[in-house]
UniProtKB/TrEMBL annotation, chains A, B, C, D:
Protein name as it appears in the record: Xylose isomerase
Keywords assigned by UniProt, alphabetized: Carbohydrate metabolism, Cytoplasm, Isomerase, Manganese, Metal-binding, Xylose metabolism
UniProt key word Isomerase: yes
Membrane-spanning residues: none
Molecular functions (GO terms): L-rhamnose isomerase activity; metal ion binding; xylose isomerase activity
Length: 325, 325, 325, 325
């Protein structure tokens, strides 16, 4: 139970653009501004930082100072391998020069991980994939994905690399599209320092049961991190956790707890039109509700119900724990 | 048959950003650059222009000169009622001051329509809607949509207004989400100068049959314009027309032809990673294939097959016309 | 508040087949068996009956006696216009003889409504639509839908007819596919005795906000009935209400209450592998939770939050009411 | 090129029921009736047979005689592990007695494979999975899936077993839900005689690129069979192959050909409302079009385009090959 630690991607506190509101959903912020906002959240311990640091030329030291001022530490570094130069892929870019750029950027990010004593380099190869039928040689594309990832893990055996899969966006189809595909790739590479960062919303949107995805990754010894949010199951909406799918969120955390998985409960939300501190507080308050509900859950009875695959009995127990008597 | 005229949204020739590649999918271009590129397409007659003109402070005259140099005329003006200031809605913004801004911008756009002798003001209220359950009062939101639209149509009886519906994006749910909802709204307003701009991809993605949507809008006398593209049915991918769903595209044009609907065959594509002139040429070449296939289609036999709802016979006729003997 | 009356489609207590388990998900039951089971539910007042009565040759009197023994009355009669003979449509069948059969069956059902003093004839034209591109003439199909429906409403002015829309299944696309399309058709017919039976799950699965759909139907004076269940948003799973989407279910009932809509809270669930009495009890217990949560909801504050479209504030209020302090 | 052999699941020539048309979409047929119909298809060489044989008590000898009369041979046997008794799962049924029944039925089916000299036992565990959140222990469910499958492969080393994955239906989520999950399981078992039967429509509906799925299965040496059909990407509609997604179908066969994959081009269609012989002939005629188009495809140029991930160039080549000059 419940010495919960909460975290967030620092982008939670940035502002956003999209293809329509090209002038942004708010005034742009530097990573230092974002860190200051993160510090205003009631119960945040760690952050995941984009690299390069956005909004200015900041040194590691400057960022560290800003973090210390807010009592925040770093859980991971996310190299931005999905910007303009990587628009046709990072690991799988048709241009070997760009693939090299990706490798170099991630290698730099590895040093930033070391600097901050963070847990991992987080890789989200959102531009690696395809848009059209017939666009790519699928074997080649997958080989490039695994070669790029494997080489980095091999070159940095002191560090962990986590892959965050997602079905699509910005590419119409991402190479690392699902928990199973990602595990298949990781097992093929066969190195101990590559794992999965499981995003609850990506699993949900991909038609997975996030609880099942977590269990599978755990059973392969590959669940290195996770984050949560919510969506309408047809897109990566990155809404506030718990606002749409509280039951599946609770099942997700139930599986983590049952497996004694210990790690940070992170947020990966994009509050386009909301106050980002409010949005984080609301999510964390809800995660605490979930934690309290799990404390109330009659696990023995639930286990029996699941043994019988008795959906009615299982969900009655869940409702009792979540909503009260 | 087939004095086809082709058109495109001028944004087809711009470059794009999204929430990940915030530095863009290419170097940014002004509307004048885009017009020059549009002029390189083999067979383009008209364009739809965003307003305000992007990439600089250009006068109507400058834009007109640029268009004339490329032999292009203007079919519609699309006021940008979906940028930062409108991020919580244009017609339905909770702030009456912002609603007024939307009204004023559209009124300006109406004058631009007059200046260019264009066919219509195109309204795509992409930020009008909601993201979360319980976020809005649904009656009030719909009332605001219809009031805002109706007022403009009333104030500008010399012009046509077309509404382009879409299920979602950027809002998680758009108020004008479907052909039927939009017709319901238009009929409620009851003015003759409001119609629909039917985007093939929006209909497809919304689970409609675009052919059925076109027929319905025609039967209400409200199909004022259309554009095409393609997608994977789960998002507004704005891919090159014909690359994924050629059969439904052909059925769409079959319905237009059967109803003697005369209008421009427009493109609304976002070639994020493709050369925009190539992408336009490829689409137009495919539309000509469709047109030729429709010339070959045995309409009498098809009508008989449809009368019997004989899917096999109907699609055999279609395949013969499209793929040859 | 809360003189709630609960109802269910009598098929909730039948057993099912599908295209794989052609020998059924349980031993088959007659309508009398189903009524007996319905009587075992703790808090059920009314049922909707399929017509013809399934599982034997039963008279109205026999059914009435069975209902009285369980203290149940009849809210609606659902003529089975989706069986083998109607596999290519009821109102829109290409064979006029089959269209006539549909008309006659519904006319019989109208008499059964009169016999039981029920509220309405429920029409769910699940086979009216299309499967393939190019299969139908879309104008003709829609005309046939409205003619068939309109004729019946005209011939039976003493009765109400409710249409239950659904995006698809068993046809790949149903003609009455959405709330807006159905309202458009009803308004075109223009008779006062046709309304909508809004199925929460159909709206959800169709990408609608069920709360918005209810509001729209109410604003046209056409919300004659409703039922609830749950699903995974990609199919009409007819799961137990509240097990997946409690928040949207609560918003749905909030809208009904705000509009002083008074009617029965009905269940349309298909407990394929569950005990049907358990499944009904569980759903009704959850609906009572929702009702209690609505009693606790600070409507004034919520109204203010919605006026500002403040999703965070609105959902905090909802969470407080639903989950407690 | 093109000594194509075509096959079909014998259920293609049966009739169907679903949860609404419980009296069926046509008069029921025995497997002997279905074989006779299969014989009427112009170009069919092999069939996949459900086991037990449907519609009567038929011996292997009777079925063999019927097949010989139509010049058909057997490619696979599909034990019906998804009927009433297995409604809560075959391999994963909570009742060990039912798991034993599944094992025994499949073992019988293995003998039928031997009798007919067929290629494989086909396993489609459509009832193995879950419907509700919290219903199952996900680890246990997956273990049971692999144990059941592995034991059979071990006990029958002379035979091949193929698993046909599908995202869902009839269970709301199937355990073998995707190409990657299935490969992960097969590799975990580690036996040489388990492979994948790749259903084009299941891959498409699951958000996969069927071409990519085929490549992946081939690269693991596990593509033991395939079948085709079409759908609207949101359900396993089992429509006639080529009617909706010709381009992706062509890409799928392009990948098979590029890998020198040799096997039967099978149909898995459910012509609910169509003549089944017509539907098979139409699909096979289209597959021949695809084959001819692949003959015309400039593979060298396509390879270059794919190397550059040039979607426009690649798809121009495809369109030329498919639609002509």
């Amino acid at each position: 139970m419940s010495n919960l630690r909460f975290g967030a991607g620092i982008w939670h506190f940035a502002t956003y653009v999209d293809r329509y509101a090209t002038d942004g959903y708010g005034d742009s912020r530097s990573i230092l501004d974002a860190i200051e906002l993160a510090g205003k959240v009631d119960d945040l311990s760690v952050v995941d930082l984009n690299y390069p640091f956005f909004g200015g030329d900041f040194t590691n030291e400057q960022v560290k100072t800003a973090l210390e001022a807010q009592n925040l530490s770093v859980i991971g570094i996310t190299p931005e391998i999905y910007t303009k130069v990587f628009r046709k892929g990072a690991f799988t870019n048709p241009d070997p020069g760009v693939r090299r750029l990706a490798h170099d950027l991630i290698t730099e990010a590895a040093d930033v991980v070391r600097y901050f004593g963070a847990d991992y380099v987080k890789l989200w190869p959102g531009q690696d994939g395809w848009d059209y039928p017939f666009q790519v040689n699928h074997r080649r594309l997958w080989e490039l994905s695994l070669e790029g990832l494997g080489q980095l893990a091999e070159e940095n055996p002191d560090l962990k690399f986590v892959v965050e899969y997602k079905p699509r966006e910005p590419r119409n189809h991402m190479s690392f599209d699902s928990v199973s595909r990602t595990l298949l790739g990781i097992e093929k590479i066969g190195l101990p320092n590559i794992g999965i960062l499981l995003d609850f919303g990506h699993a949900l949107y991909g038609g997975e049961s996030p609880a099942d995805s977590a269990q599978l990754a755990i059973d392969y010894g590959r669940l290195f991190g996770m984050d949560v949010n919510d969506n309408l199951r047809s897109w990566d909406d990155d809404m506030i956790a718990g606002t749409v799918h509280p039951i599946e969120l609770m099942e997700f955390f139930h599986v983590l707890r049952s497996n004694n998985w210990e790690g940070v409960w992170q947020l990966d939300q994009f509050p386009f039109r909301e106050d980002s501190v409010d949005a984080a507080n609301m999510a964390i308050d809800f995660l605490k509700r979930i934690d309290a509900a799990l404390n109330r859950l009659d696990v023995e009875e639930l286990t029996a119900a699941q043994e019988a695959q008795d959906a009615v009995k299982a969900n009655r127990l869940v409702q009792q724990a979540l909503y009260g008597g």
